[in-house]
Amino acid sequence: MPSWFFRSLVPFILLLSSIFFLLAGIRFTNALWGLAVTIPLFATALLDFVQTRHSLRRNYPLIARFRWLFEDLRPYLRSYIVESDLDGRPFNKDERALAYARSKNEISTHPFGTELDVYSDEYEWLSHSIVPNDAVPEELRIMIGGPQCTKPYSAAILNISAMSFGSLGGNAIEALNMGAKKGGFYHDTGEGSYSKYHAKHGGDIVWELGSGYFGCRDADGHFDDEKFRATATLDQIKMIEIKLSQGAKPGHGGVLPGTKVTKEIAETRGVPAGENCISPVAHSAFSTPLEMLAWAARLREMSGGKPVGIKLCVGQPHEVFAIIKAMLESNILLDFIVVDGAEGGTGAAPVELSNRVGMPLREGLILVRNALVGAGLKDRIRLGAAGKVVSGAGLAINMAVGADWCNAARAFMFSLGCVQSMKCHTGDCPTGVATQDPFRQRGLVIGDKAERVYQFQKQTVSALRDIVVAMGLENPWQIRPHHLHERLNSAKSSSIDYIYPFLENRVLIEAPDDTPYAQYWAAAQTSSFRARPSVKQTLHDQDTDP
Question: What's the predicted TM-score (pTM) here?
Answer without folding.
Answer: 0.86
